[in-house]
Structure formats: C-alpha cells, structure tokens
Write a structure and sequence with these properties.
Shape: globular
Number of domains: 1
CATH superfamily: MFS general substrate transporter like domains
Radius of gyration: 21 Å
Number of strands: 0
Largest sheet: none
Distance between the termini: 18 Å
Helix content: over 70%
C-alpha cells in the first residue's frame, strides 16, 4: 500500500472509530444541556421559578463544571481518555435523570451543580487528548468541525423532541419530567459502549493495520517535536502563556453570548411570536441546520487555507448582529431570521476554535490549558444565563440582556483577531510512509 493510500485509510478509520463515537457523545451531552431551555416553557410555572431563579439554575451548572474541569482533563491525559469519557457519561446520565424529581429552587441549583461536576472535562478530553492523537494540525479543524456539528444535530433532534415531550405526560409525570428522564437514558447506555468501541492511542487500535498505526503514531510524534522545538510548555507555563490567557478571555465572552442565547432563546421567541412549544421546537431545526452547514464550510475552508483567526472572528460578529439587532424586531418571522444569524455566529466557529490551542501545545500542557480555557468559557456560561434572567426580571424586557450578549460576542471576535498568525505546526510536513523509521 503506498503512502497516500495508508494516510487515507488511517484517516477514514479514525473518522469512523474516533470522530463518530465522539460525535454521538457530544450529541447526547448537548441534548442533556439544552433541554433545560425547553423545559422552562412549562417547568418554571409548575415549580414557581422566577426568571432570576431559572437563570441561576441554568448557570450554576457551569460552577460545578469549572471546579472539576482541569483535574479531570489531566487525569484523562495521564491515564485513559476513553475510560474517563465513559465515567463522565454514566455519572451525568444518572444525575440528569434526577432533574425530573426536583420540587424546590435549592434542589434545582444542587442538581444542576452536580450535573456540571459530573460532565466536567468532557470537551477538554475530546480536544486535547482524543482528536490530536489521530489527526494532524492541518486536518484538525476539519475533523473538529465534523465532530462539533453534534451541537446543531442535538438541536435538530432535541428541539422538536423537547417541544413534543412537553405535551406528553406519562405515568403521572408531567411533560418536562418525562423529558429529563428519557433524555438521560442514552448517556448511561453509551457510556458503557465507548469502552469497547474507542482506543486511547493508534498503537492500541485493533481496527488499524500495522502500517496505519505507524503512520498515525509518527504523525503525532512529529507534531509534538515541532511544538517542543519552539517551546516546551509545562502545565504551569501554559497557564501563564499570553496566548492561552487571550484564548481564555475570548472564550469567556463567546460562551457568555452562546449560553445566554441558547438557554433563553425559546422563551424570548415565544414571547415575541406567541407560537406553541411544539412549533418553536420544530422551527429551531432551521437555524441549527444552517449553522451546521456553515460550521462544515468554515472548518473545511480553514484547513484548506491554513487560516484560523478570521474564520473564528467573523462568526462572533455575525452572532452579535443576530442578537443585538434582532431583539428590536417585533415581527416574529423577521425576528426568527435574526435567530438564524445568532445561531450561525455562535455555533459555526467551534471547529476552528478548538483546533487552535493544540497548534502550539501538546500532552498535559494542552490538556491543562484547554481545561483552563474551557473553565473560563464555563464561567461565561454562568454569567450569560444569569445576567439575562436578572436583566429581564429587573427591567421587564430582554432588550438590555440581548444587547449585553451581543457586546460579549463582539469582544470575543476582537480578541480572536489578536491571536498569533504563524504557529509552530504550520511548518510540519505530512508524514511520508516510505520514509518512516522502523520501530
């Protein structure tokens, strides 16, 4: 088999046995995350939750996430990413199901905090410990874009499902309780399945040939060597690196807007339109599908052109227009067009974004730094929903909140444009199988 055939075969198998299970994990994770936004359409009234209480409960998920994010990422990198992902899924599935049995605000806060703690380090493990071992820096934006279409896929599946389940009481449970119970089960089941499906390293993959194992292993080793040649980062050095700190700040502002939009959008759209819960759930398929296609295009374009900054920043500016202008529109259908813009802007750059830190970091430094970056984003995940609820309760309107979220996205876009243009892995040539050293 010639070198191009080995590379193509290895990449194809990595998509099937690494990207595909990670895609399914991410779909389940985001369905379990965003179902709270749809449950609010009936749950808040049933339990007597105010806008501020719901914002606190939605956001406190990220407090649990932040506390356990970095330790979890380091544990997975040192031992077994695959087993750590299995632990995450099983524990979050069990906790998510408990949401159906809460009655008070404090129970809401406690379960949401535990859910964040259970899910902590999921994405840092995927970005730092899983994908870089199988895909080169040049291919990573495309692979991550494919993987992270899971975010919109979860909306395409979860939004209509949630809208329907809200109107389906079962065995004495109300619709929102049925929603939490049924959507928790897949996490537990798939947590056990990935133990047998995935592999931690190419050398351990039974579904690769010896040539393919060698190709992927040397590809990874060459990239690590190129990064170390520029600078060998310890975890603490990575935490203090200027580029990492800018990534932290940019992600904080981005995720402030992202989760503020996602958790509150169903409520805002219903207030503007008066549409039914089922109609809102079904209509959300449109912005999720369009943003999914845009994400794939951006990931492909970034990998083809070797450019990351503008491919990320433009999305932030589009999202800011969707939120900052759309909130002043009172026609429901025109308002919905701005929801589409907001979805494109807040979702589409993810693949490019998470390919950036691993262009100059690897190993425990990458795991720790990505954990730190994601933690800062998750602080924004608390701030966005909470501030939105607080502004709504204080002013009686979502206008100020949506403008605040739009400004957060603009700040993120401006920071992204300050990132380094030339990175260590830009100089790494593809591995030539014919020239690989024997081991």
């Amino acid at each position: 088999m010639d070198n191009s055939a080995v590379a193509a075969s290895a990449k194809r198998k990595a998509y099937l046995n690494i990207v595909l299970p990670l895609f399914i994990i991410s779909v389940i994770a985001y369905i379990d995350r965003v179902n709270i936004g749809y449950s609010a359409l009936t749950m808040n009234k049933d339990l007597g939750f105010t806008a501020q209480m719901f914002g606190m409960g939605a956001g406190i998920f990220f407090a649990g996430y932040v506390l356990f994010e970095i330790p979890g990422a380091l544990i997975a990198e040192k031992y077994s990413p695959r087993m750590w992902l299995a632990r995450i899924m099983i524990s979050w599935g069990l906790v998510s199901g408990l949401m159906a049995f809460m009655h008070t605000g404090w129970q809401f806060y406690a379960i949401r905090f535990l859910l964040g703690a259970a899910e902590a380090s999921l994405y840092p493990v995927i970005y730092a410990s899983c994908v870089p071992r199988w895909f080169s820096s040049r291919d990573r934006a495309r692979a991550l874009a494919v993987l992270l279409t899971s975010l919109q896929t979860s909306g395409i599946i979860g939004a209509p499902l949630a809208g329907w389940l809200l109107g389906v009481p079962l065995f004495g449970f109300k619709g929102w309780q049925v929603l939490f119970i049924l959507e928790a089960i897949p996490a537990v089941i798939f947590g056990f399945l990935i133990i047998f499906w995935m592999a931690d390293w190419p050398s351990e993959a039974k579904w690769l040939t010896e040539e393919e194992k060698k190709f992927l292993t040397e590809q990874y080793e060459r990239e690590v060597a190129a990064k170390v040649a520029v600078k060998h980062y310890t975890v603490l050095q990575a935490f203090k690196d200027r580029e990492v700190l800018k990534l932290c700040a940019a992600y904080f502002f981005w995720i402030t807007g992202f989760w503020g939009f996602n958790y509150w959008m169903p409520t805002v759209l219903k207030a503007v339109s008066g549409w039914s819960n089922l109609a809102i759930g079904e209509l959300m398929v449109i912005p999720m599908t369009i943003s999914l296609l845009t994400m794939l295009y951006i990931g492909h374009s970034s990998s083809k052109r070797g450019e990351k900054r503008w491919h990320g920043a433009i999305g932030m500016f589009i999202g800011a227009i969707g939120l900052g202008v759309g909130v002043f529109i009172h026609n429901p259908w025109i308002s919905f067009l701005f929801v589409i813009l907001a979805a494109i802007g807040t979702y589409a750059p993810f693949g490019v974004w998470w390919s950036y830190p691993t262009t100059f970091l690897s190993g425990t430094a990458a795991a720790g730094a990505i954990g730190l970056i994601n933690s800062c984003g998750n602080i924004g995940g608390f701030v966005g929903p909470y501030i939105t609820g607080w502004i709504k309760q204080t002013t009686g309107s979502f206008v100020g909140a949506w403008v605040y979220l739009a400004c957060s996205l603009v700040m993120s876009g401006l920071l992204i444009l300050t990132f380094k243009k030339v990175l260590p892995t830009d100089a790494v040539e593809p591995v030539n199988v014919d020239q690989m050293s024997s081991k």
